[in-house]
Amino acid sequence: MVKLLYFARLRERLDCATESLELPAGVSTVGALRLWLAGRGGEWQAALAQDQSVRVAVNQDMASDATPVQDHDEVAFFPPVTGG
Amino acid sequence: MVKLLYFARLRERLDCATESLELPAGVSTVGALRLWLAGRGGEWQAALAQDQSVRVAVNQDMASDATPVQDHDEVAFFPPVTGG
Amino acid sequence: MVAARVRVQEADFDASHEIARLRAGDPRVGAVASFIGVCRDLNEGDAVATMTLEHYPGMTERSIERIIDEAMGRWQVFDALVVHRVGQLEPLDQIVFVAVTSAHRGDAFAACEFIMDYLKTQAPFWKREQTATGPRWVAARSSDDAAAARWAEAAIKG
Amino acid sequence: MVAARVRVQEADFDASHEIARLRAGDPRVGAVASFIGVCRDLNEGDAVATMTLEHYPGMTERSIERIIDEAMGRWQVFDALVVHRVGQLEPLDQIVFVAVTSAHRGDAFAACEFIMDYLKTQAPFWKREQTATGPRWVAARSSDDAAAARWAEAAIKG
Q1: What is the pLDDT of residues D114-152, one digit of tens each?
Q2: pTM (2 decimals)?
Q3: CA–CA separation, A6 vs C90, rounded Å?
Q4: What is the CATH number of the domain that holds B33?
Q5: Mutate which: D12, D38, D75, D127, vs C, most C CBs within 10 A
Q6: Which residue segments constitute the domains of chain C, with CATH numbers given?
């Protein structure tokens, strides 16, 4: 299982703050996971499409599409940050 | 009369904080005034010599050797500043 | 005794108190540069009534710790502190505090500004504003990316 | 009501208090950059027991006012404050405080550092340190001249 987190506008659009997911077969990177989630269609497709500015962190470190994802990882999806 | 002020190390060396002076004949610039004061000899000569780092302000504005000096001016001599 | 260098909290903070704690008993400190970010009543031309700050607990602290480490590697500084508020804030409220101690002012200023610039683009906080036309998530600013990029090639490693 | 932008005093100051006063009631302020200069226990390798700060009353305030005017002409800032102590100080004592308010942090940081750099080379203060081998006047540092020169060609006009 991986733990997925969604923050801010993304959390609101998806109406989902966190979920646990059995890593789908063949999904071993951030890019593949994002594509798989977008495949759920509807808001998932719209919010996670490649043209959307979505940031991803794996185990609380900023990640890129190529970053590996494996069982027990914590993967977070969120918009560009706006603190400070 | 001009009012002369001396600060910090210069005040200590000259053992003089302030004095009033009838502007000597022919003295109409900062450079000339400094030369005239150095002409007093002793510590005045040593402290105000051209090779000493002495700053001068006329009427509380930083001045150079060419700055005019006239009756009623306030002229201050001091070392490079070290506040902050 | 080591005090936390990063705090995320709902409560307000007092700059003097934080600075006094940061440099307490360290007579090597000659310079303290600090910054306070404040909630404005206007953003992108619209009046802002309140603002809510969301964050990613755990990653927030971790990312700011890393930014401070990076700053301490680049400049001669003794210590640094970041306090960032979350929850609901209003115009005039303090949002963020950064303070850096050093022997000399140049290092303190540079490290303090570096930490703020990186925090703006790297630390997972998100602002939602309440305006007359309803709530909206604040958009990231390209000027913030530019400010962070100016500190050069050596990116903070993930 | 206009509060003094420059104060020279023997008394200590409180950064939070000064910042609160500086930005009081101004909801345009998004950024406050500030700096505190502190008395160290070591200078040029020697232990410093106490320090005495002398100044040129009148010219001091005037020169700092001019530095603030110059900063406000260069950057988009709302207000600025300089408090500088004189008289006898000890290690750990606060010496100088500079704070600048702005809508944005870049302007606040730049103006604050500019004011400090110019103050170090333009404002008539002199430090005398008491060390184990007796009193000595602190020598001006060429690094301070370099820091001020970095802000470029447009010198402060006399």
Answers
A1: 999 999 999 999 999 998 889 999 999 989 999 999 997
A2: 0.94
A3: 25
A4: 3.10.20.30
A5: D38
A6: 10-153 (3.90.1170.40)
